[in-house]
Structure formats: structure tokens, C-alpha cells
TrEMBL record:
This is Sulfur carrier protein FdhD. Gene3D superfamilies: 3.10.20.10, Cytidine Deaminase, domain 2. Mo-bis(molybdopterin guanine dinucleotide) binds at F243, A244, R245, G246, N247, K248. Transmembrane segments: none annotated. The keyword Disulfide bond does not apply. It comes from Campylobacter pinnipediorum subsp. caledonicus. The lineage of its organism: Bacteria, Pseudomonadati, Campylobacterota, Epsilonproteobacteria, Campylobacterales.
């Protein structure tokens, strides 16, 4: 399925108008089926859907390792990702009973936004990140983002595992972009413990939790965090940075990982 949709529009520039072709991003309702049971549904852009499902299940602690997956397949006819895997039944039960509709674009649920009950490990990596390197990467953030270049209608996440390698997630829903990037990296056997993640939108609680649950030590955005996002980052020792624009950078937690 193509992630873009072509249509004809009427375009005005001042009082002049013309009929022309335009490219839109396609939006679908995707179901995630695990061991023949529906785990959830989300609005998504139909690209990297298997990675999206894996990243979502990792972030919710439903699967602990992608090696626990014995089979994964996108069923285009039914618009679902079908997975066979060894799962954490307790986390799945928690998701079913404690799920919250999250604040990102599109509709999805999480059970991991409660500061008091969130089950995650402290991020104790002593890796350091140079401030100028963060600025340089952010200045090139939208490069190699094909859907954004074509439509300007998607959020983007870039997960850097080293200076040379990164994984891109693009979707109408920001939380999906993170799951896609994490899923692609995990399926590629990448080590995330010294990685850093850049996103295009706000750093709300569910975005921060996804970094924490996957032991990513640095999360950066061009925009602002929410209060709960900052509290979660501080509790789990995640370095959280916002307003990364030009030579500006706001550090909200664990500033010791950033150096000049």
C-alpha cells in the first residue's frame, strides 16, 4: 500500500487560481493482532507497519525482546499486523485494564503514563553528548525524510545509534514515529543504550516513556516538554532537551550528559 495519495485541488495565490495535482499522506486504521487476539488499534501512515507494531509492543513491555517474535506479517487486506510471540501477559492485562487514550495525533492507548506505577529501570549510562553535535543533527533533522518532503504532513523521529547510522520513523501520529524508529532499530539488532532520539513535536509523557522503556539516554525536540514528561525524565535519569534550534537548547533533566 502506497503511503501517499494523489488528488486534484484548486489552488489560490492571491486572486489567481488553478487546478493542480497534490500529494497527501494516506491515513489508515491499523489493528495489532498478537497470538490471534487484538491488542489495540491506531491511526497510522501505511509505511514501516511491522516496525511500528514491534516498537509499540516493546514500549508497552508486552514483548521484552524482538527475538521472542516467531512470526510477523502485515495483512494488507485486513489492515492489521499479525504477530506470533512470547509475551508478557501481565503487561498485556495492565494495558487492557488501565489503558489511557494518549495525546498524540491519531488514536492509540498506553498503560505507561502513571509516574507512580511506571515500571522501568533507571537509565545509568555515562555516555556524553556534545551540544554542537546535537545542534548539527537537528539542523539536518528533516533530511532523508521522504514522506515529509513529499507531503509536509507527517511527524518524524530519528533514532541515532552512532554518528553514521540512524533509523527514521514517519507518521501522522507522533507517538507512532518513535515506535517505528525503535522497531526498525531493534529488528536490525541495534544497541539502543548509547543512542539518542530526536522528534519533531512536543515531549509529552508518552513520548518520554517510550525513550525510558527502551533505555535511550537522550531525547531531543525542537519544541517543548510537558510537566509530566519532565517529571518522568527526572525520575528515570533521562536527559531531556527541548527548543533545540540553532545554537539554543533547553535541558530539563540530567544535564551532566551534555557538554560544550
Amino acid at each position: 500500500m502506497e503511503p501517499i495519495f494523489k488528488t486534484q485541488i484548486t489552488k489560490y495565490i492571491g486572486d489567481d487560481f488553478s487546478n493542480c495535482d497534490d500529494i497527501l499522506v494516506r491515513e489508515i486504521k491499523l489493528d495489532i493482532i498478537v497470538n490471534d487476539k487484538k491488542v489495540g488499534s491506531m491511526m497510522a501512515t501505511p509505511v514501516d507497519l511491522e516496525a511500528l507494531a514491534v516498537g509499540y509492543l516493546l514500549s508497552e513491555n508486552i514483548i521484552l525482546n524482538h527475538k521472542d517474535i516467531s512470526d510477523i506479517n502485515f495483512n494488507e487486506k485486513k489492515l492489521c499486523v499479525e504477530i506470533k510471540a512470547k509475551i508478557n501477559e501481565e503487561s498485556l492485562k495492565t494495558l487492557n485494564h488501565e489503558s489511557i487514550i494518549i495525546s498524540g495525533c491519531g488514536r492509540s492507548v498506553t498503560a505507561n503514563v502513571n509516574l507512580e506505577t511506571l515500571s522501568a529501570k533507571l537509565i545509568n549510562q555515562d555516555i556524553k553528548f556534545k551540544r554542537s553535535d546535537i545542534s548539527n543533527q537537528m539542523s539536518e533533522f528533516y533530511t532523508q525524510c521522504e514522506l515529509y518532503e513529499k507531503t509536509g504532513c507527517v511527524h518524524t523521529a530519528k533514532l541515532f545509534t552512532d554518528n553514521q547510522k540512524f533509523y527514521i520513523g514517519e507518521d501522522i501520529a507522533q507517538h507512532n514515529t518513535i515506535d517505528k524508529a525503535i522497531g526498525k532499530a531493534t529488528l536490525d539488532n541495534a544497541d539502543l543504550k548509547n543512542s539518542f532520539l530526536m522528534v519533531s513535536g512536543r515531549l509529552s509523557s508518552e513520548m518520554v516513556v517510550k525513550a525510558v522503556m527502551n533505555s535511550i539516554p537522550l531525547l531531543v525536540s525542537r519544541t517543548a516538554p510537558t510537566s509530566l514528561g519532565v517529571l518522568i525524565a527526572r525520575k528515570f535519569n533521562l536527559t531531556l532537551c527541548g527548543f533545540a534550534r540553532g545554537n539554543k537548547l533547553n535541558i530539563y533533566s540530567c544535564e551532566s550528559r551534555i557538554y560544550a
